[in-house]
Design goal:
This protein is an alpha/beta fold and about 290 residues long. It has two domains: about 160 residues, Aspartate Aminotransferase, domain 2, CATH 3.40.640.10; about 120 residues, Aspartate Aminotransferase, domain 1. Helix 7 packs across helix 10. It is globular and about 55 Å long.
């Protein structure tokens, strides 16, 4: 993100429009927003729906206010935003470069979904998809966008290509579908928790499986399940300060979201115990 902004949009007046659900952590900061702030860019935010898909009406209003040179869309948890074509049309109408954040969507973008097919700029976070300690990737739709950018870790390309993308994608999809099936059978569905992503769209390869815990017990459930070794995560549990006052629904979601692991090292024989653990702690925390 920093590389793109510094080389393609070097003027500090080149404003960036971002989605309102942007996380921050003390260890990593905010990979999307920090470069915007560090480079002194003007910025704004647009709203999302409760399932983290783009609110097109709000997006159009924000773009119409003028001045945005880049529009960032995040494909949360590997799900391609269903309105991607309309988002692209809005970006073109208002003269903004469409930046697709595919930090969670590497496999979706290379395995048949529309993710990554509309953006002039595509950002990837390799260490979120592969067992790497670090590594990212940015690609551009046109040589006209290339200027001072330089490849810094070209050896990562060999590492990425050494993995079987088809097998990884199939495993992630299968794990997602099996966990979803088990969660959908729990009596607490709709009363104690909701599935943000009830169905897996063709071509999408999930990064995790997001669930909304309806009580205020997400943190305790997260803690107890990880003590049992299940590798739960709570992505976007803390949002950047800049969205806290204006996007209440996103703040509320950040306090309730929890993500089940579906990665290629999750074995089928642990899925029953994974979901059983979630169910037991849901009941325990509701008492």
């Amino acid at each position: 993100m920093h590389d793109f902004l510094a080389n393609v949009l070097p003027d500090s007046q080149d404003a960036v429009l971002l989605p309102a659900f942007i996380g921050w952590s003390p260890n990593e900061g905010s990979g999307v927003f920090d470069p915007v702030a560090q480079l002194g860019k003007q910025f704004g935010f647009y709203d999302l729906k409760p399932d983290l898909t783009v609110d097109l009406d709000d997006l159009e209003r924000r773009l119409a206010s003028g001045g945005y040179r880049a529009l960032v869309v995040i494909h949360y948890f590997g799900r391609t935003d269903p309105a991607l074509s309309s988002i692209s049309e809005l970006a073109q109408r208002f003269g903004a470069l469409l930046v697709e954040d595919l930090a969670h969507g590497f496999f979706s973008s290379v395995r048949g979904s529309q993710a990554g097919s509309y953006g002039q700029v595509r950002l990837y976070s390799l260490h979120k998809m592969f067992p790497f300690a670090e590594g990212g990737l940015v690609t551009y739709s046109s040589p006209a966008l290339l200027g001072g950018q330089k490849s810094t870790k070209s050896e990562l390309a060999v590492d990425v290509m050494s993995y079987n993308w088809d097998a990884i994608s199939a495993t992630r999809r299968a794990n997602f579908e099996e966990i979803t099936k088990r969660l959908a059978a729990l009596p607490g569905l709709g009363r104690q928790f909701q599935l943000l992503w009830p169905e897996l769209n063709a071509g999408d390869v999930p990064q995790t499986l997001p669930v909304r815990v309806l009580s205020n017990t997400r943190d305790e459930i997260y803690k107890k399940m990880n003590e049992e070794g299940f590798g739960m995560v709570s992505l976007y549990h803390t949002l950047i300060d800049h969205v806290r006052g204006d996007f209440g629904s996103m703040m509320d979601l950040s306090r309730h979201i929890i993500n089940f692991p579906v990665h290629q090292d999750v074995q089928p024989d642990v899925l029953d115990s994974l979901v059983s653990s979630f169910q037991s702690h849901l009941k325990e925390e509701m008492v």
